[in-house]
Each structure stands twice: as structure tokens, then as C-alpha cells.
Design brief:
11 helices; Rossmann fold; globular; binds thiamine diphosphate; alpha/beta; eight-stranded mixed beta sheet
């Protein structure tokens, strides 16, 4: 890729250099680790990372080793976006005073850290319109502490706090519409992405960094332990999430919605579900209604996105 080009046309144009390096302790087949590797391919230096607690943080920074070849700070869940906003403003002032250069600031947190615990700080940072990118890697539960359900866990999924038994059959509530919440702040750019579509993801990270103001990317990152599937299946399952319309890939630029991956002939949702142990019980006759409900949600969401694409506005 020529130095002046902003985006990557093919995967071969992506730089070989890794700012997220091997040797970390994330699982074999870990979706979040792939998301980190890909996201770091899009950075424009200088860049600083603000990383909330979670699998990525604890497994990439065990003293005396670190997997990040760029400035990186660990923060708590609650203040991830607040710390990122403080850092970005500090860089701005330092540059203004001629004492340093502006850095891109990327906040990174899991779904527990974003959908639930860090939501207030995220809302504040988006509303104050700091120049920063927030990436939420979504493995649909609090994985680092033993697979507890989060606001991102889909209905019907078995987790340790939404177990399958006589009383309930997996999580009873729907997944939170996080990107809807983000877009309600009228941010200039928000997008979804999947590690099965690396070029789309990398270019979205680059685009988000190029845009002035707060930007947000929600990337789906399967978890071999929590979703209960063999490590070799991570990319296949990520792709099935997209091809069944379970996780639509779209972006919102200044409120205009574009579905980036048109899935005209979706694969049956069952193909995505049956590949994972956390949904095993949904194929028992007693849980047919949960399966049907989940299918209805997927269809409803896709139709809603199509309509919003037509209207040209998210909300
Ligand atoms: C305020 C607070 N509550 C709970 C914890 C314990 N804790 C550490 S990691 C973690 C799970 C994080 O889940 P998520 O953000 O989804 O990231 P993942 O572990 O799935 O990568 C929890 C609950 C904590 N560190 N701080």
C-alpha cells in the first residue's frame, strides 16, 4: 500500500508489522485475540491504547511481559471511556503547547465492560465529543471471570448465571441494542464488524480513526470456552453469525446507515446455533418457543436495518 492511501484494497495490502504481538496467554482460537491483531493493523502512529479489564487485558499484560508494541494503559471497567477522553485531551493540549504530538486514542473493552459496567462513562465521552475510537469486542458474556451473562448475551444462551435447568432454559432476556444507544448520541461514525471479514473490520478501524469526533466499533468475537465449540471453529462460527443475519454488518456515517454485507439468502439460524454447546438445549422440543423467539428477533432486526437504510437515518 502506498503511504498516502488510507484504506486497504486487499488483505495483501495490510502491513505485515504487528503492534499486537504473539506470546500472549489468550486461548487457542480466541476471537478477541484475532480482533486485536486485526485492529492493530489499522493504526496510524502515534497511537495509545486504553484497555479495560477483561480477557484481553489480563492475558496480554502479565508482568514482566506485554503484547502491545505501542503505548498502552490498563483501566477499570467504569472509567475506560473517561480515561480515554482525558488522554486524548491531554495529547491535544501538549501538541498545542509544542510539547508533544497528538495521538490516536483507542479504548478497548469487552461486552461486560461496555454494555453494562462502563456504559455511563462511554455515554459521557460520546456526548462530550472527544476525538477517540472505542472498540467493544463482544464475546457475549463476562468470560474472564467464568462465563457470566451480560447485557450482550443473547436470549437462550446458557451461561453460569443463566444456566439451563428446571427453572430457566438459558438467558431469558434479549441482547441489548448497544449500537442504538451509541447512535442516539449522534456520533459521526459507528459500525459493526466480524473477525470473519478482516478487510471490512480493518478498514472500519482506519475510517473511525480518520474521522474527527468520537467513533465506535462493535466487533463480534466468539469465545471457544464460553460458546463451547472447538478452537478450530472460531472463524467459521463468526462467518455463520453474519451469513445467518444473526450479526448484521453495517455502518452509520453521520447517521446514514449502510449495510456493508448484504445477506440476500440467509443460512438457517440453526447452523449458527447448533455449532455451539451454549445453545444445545434449544434443539429439545421443550425449548422450541425460545428457538422460535430467537429466529423472530433476528428477522425483525434485519428488516429494521433494511428500512433504516432506506430512510437514511438510524433513528
Ligand atoms: C467493577 C468490577 N466488577 C467486576 C470485576 C471482575 N471482573 C474482571 S474481568 C471481568 C469480566 C469482564 O467481561 P467482559 O468485559 O465481557 O470481557 P471478557 O472477560 O469477556 O473479555 C469481571 C467481571 C472487576 N474487575 N471490576
Amino acid at each position: 500500500m502506498a503511504a498516502q492511501e488510507k484504506y486497504f484494497k486487499t488483505i495483501k495490502d495490510v502491513p505485515l508489522e504487528d503492534y499486537f504481538t504473539p506470546g500472549h496467554r489468550l486461548c487457542a482460537g480466541c476471537g478477541p485475540s484475532l480482533a486485536m491483531k486485526l485492529a492493530m493493523k489499522a493504526v496510524r502512529m502515534p497511537t495509545a491504547i486504553v484497555n479495560a479489564t477483561g480477557c484481553v487485558e489480563v492475558s496480554t499484560s502479565m508482568f514482566p511481559y506485554v503484547s502491545w508494541k505501542l503505548p498502552w494503559i490498563h483501566v477499570a471497567f467504569e472509567n475506560t471511556a473517561a480515561v480515554a477522553s482525558g488522554i486524548t485531551e491531554a495529547f491535544r493540549i501538549l501538541e498545542k503547547k509544542g510539547r508533544g504530538s497528538m495521538h490516536d486514542v483507542i479504548a478497548i473493552a469487552g461486552d461486560g465492560g461496555t454494555f453494562d459496567i462502563g456504559l455511563q462513562a462511554l455515554s459521557g465521552a460520546l456526548e462530550r465529543r472527544h476525538k477517540m475510537l472505542y472498540i467493544c469486542y463482544d464475546n457475549e458474556a463476562y468470560m474472564n471471570t467464568g462465563i457470566q451473562r451480560s447485557g450482550a448475551t443473547p436470549m437462550g444462551a446458557a451461561t453460569t448465571t443463566s444456566p439451563v435447568g428446571k427453572v430457566i432454559s438459558g438467558k431469558q432476556e434479549r441482547k441489548k441494542d448497544l449500537i442504538g444507544i451509541v447512535v442516539a448520541h449522534k456520533v459521526p461514525y459507528a459500525a459493526t464488524a466480524s473477525i470473519s471479514h478482516p478487510l471490512d473490520f480493518i478498514n472500519k478501524v482506519r475510517k473511525a480513526l480518520e474521522i474527527e469526533g468520537p467513533t465506535f466499533i462493535h466487533v463480534l468475537t466468539p469465545c471457544t470456552l464460553g460458546w463451547r465449540y472447538p478452537p478450530s471453529q472460531t472463524i467459521k462460527i463468526s462467518r455463520l453469525a453474519v451469513e445467518t443475519r444473526y450479526f448484521p454488518i453495517f455502518e452509520l456515517e453521520y447517521g446514514k446507515l449502510k449495510i456493508n454485507i448484504k445477506v440476500s439468502k440467509p443460512r438457517p439460524l440453526e447452523e449458527f446455533l447448533e455449532a455451539q454447546g451454549r445453545f444445545k438445549h434449544l434443539f429439545e422440543p421443550a425449548n422450541k418457543d425460545v428457538l422460535e423467539n430467537l429466529k423472530m428477533q433476528v428477522e425483525e432486526n434485519w428488516n429494521r436495518l433494511l428500512k433504516l437504510e432506506e430512510i437514511g437515518l438510524y433513528a
